[in-house]
Amino acid sequence: SALCAAAVNERGGVSGEGWSVPDGEEKSPVEYVSLFAFLCRKKLKSTSKYIYQTLFLNGENSDIKICALGEEWNLHKIYLCQSGYFSSMFSGSWKESSMNIIELEIPDQNIDIEALQVAFGSLYRDDVLIKPSRVVALLAAACMLQLDGLIQQCGETMKETINAKTVCGYYNSAGTYGLDSVKKKCLEWLLNNLMTHQSVELFKELSINLMKQLISSSNLFVMQVEMDVYTALKKWMFLQLVPSWNGSLKQLLTEADAWFAKRRKDFEDDIAFLESEQGNAFLSVFTHLRLQYIISDLASARIIERDSLIPSEWLSSVYKQQWFAMLRAEQDNDIGPQEINKEELEGNSMRCGRKLAKDGDYCWRWTGFNFGFDLLVTYTNRYIIFKRNTLNQPCSGSVSLQPRRSIAFRLRLASFDSSGKIICSRTTGYQILTLEKDQEQVVMNLDSRFLIFPLYICCNFLYTSPEKKAESEALLDNSEG
């Protein structure tokens, strides 16, 4: 072939990178096919480089000039027609279809000269190297010019480079430019990392609407207990109000408590901070706290009362709700959930978690009054075990002696890399577990090949069955009669 002939050297041998065929040496058909494929690749690569250098960078044989942001590009209509924006412009009855100099209006402030340079250049080459620091500007340019392939590349780059510094910017940009899959990835990252890898910078960047989504989700990866979600919100709200604060994460809670304590002196006794003019903007976020799992612990309940951030009416309602739930468990002998009620689990389950720094044996319980169900969790020999403790170990709260008790639960495990991306995960899905007194049950058996420490464990629990509204209303009617 002509292509093979082009590779014949002066002595009649064939040469190239990785190839040297001396004169007179026979090669098999397979070897010649491989050589032909190699030379094709090399020629295509050279052609691509030639087109980019000669036509785009040098602007040779240009038939149209694009002007934008004070810069000029000598381009070619046949290449520009790959862009939906220019294809419509040139094929319609627009005045620009017959012009050879076009002034582009750039309405999007995210677009700069460098982004336009890369976007235009992408029309003349197959591969575009996208820097994470430039991806938002390039995405903006790609969307304006309707370059679907480049938009997709930007989306993939964003998904691969989500971290604490990029996640909020990516989330906002994905919303602006309609990249739902990127938006979903950012939300997943935040649900996994907000509590497990807290940072001052991330708290500062999180908007009210985004924080509302995170706090309301049953997929929030909570470490320890719900009280820690409240504490994180307090730190976040302080940083939203005092964005100039630049201390460390260790100092943040002390500073936030001191700042809110000063504000309490400015209000009347019956006004909570969230009811004040400053705090009102954050009300919608705090409504998604699962307060019933905060006031179930004495120390936490006292902090909530002391802080006076939350309106007293909210707390009164939750205290009443928990009192009736306790009476049902004690006097109606509620043995717990009997079926999976996903709506109830998603909206009202207890969220708690634990970090296992290294492999070993662990046993723990989550603090608070859990309606007489003292749940012990054990991690040992790659097993996670739930035990209903009644008599064998001392318990800080009351213990139910009912023969059988049920809980609804979901257990999730995850390990993260340095950027907060999940590198391994497992879940039980939502389940019902019924245990007799002091009975234990293996809920997860882990394959050691996939165990990477530190290991993060997160659980959702429902200890009581949801109260049927019709029954509770009937009881109220009877009592009134």
TrEMBL record:
The keyword Cytoplasm does not apply. Residues 62-132 form the BTB domain. It is found in: Nucleus matrix. CDD domains: BACK_GCL, BTB_POZ_GCL. SUPFAM superfamilies: POZ domain. The keyword Transcription regulation does not apply. GO terms for cellular component: nuclear matrix. GO terms for biological process: germ cell development; spermatogenesis. Keywords: Developmental protein, Differentiation, Nucleus, Spermatogenesis. InterPro entries: BACK, BTB/POZ_dom, Gcl-like, SKP1/BTB/POZ_sf. PANTHER family: BTB DOMAIN-CONTAINING PROTEIN (PTHR23231:SF17), GERM CELL-LESS PROTEIN (PTHR23231). This is BTB domain-containing protein. It comes from Otus sunia. The lineage of its organism: Eukaryota, Metazoa, Chordata, Craniata, Vertebrata.
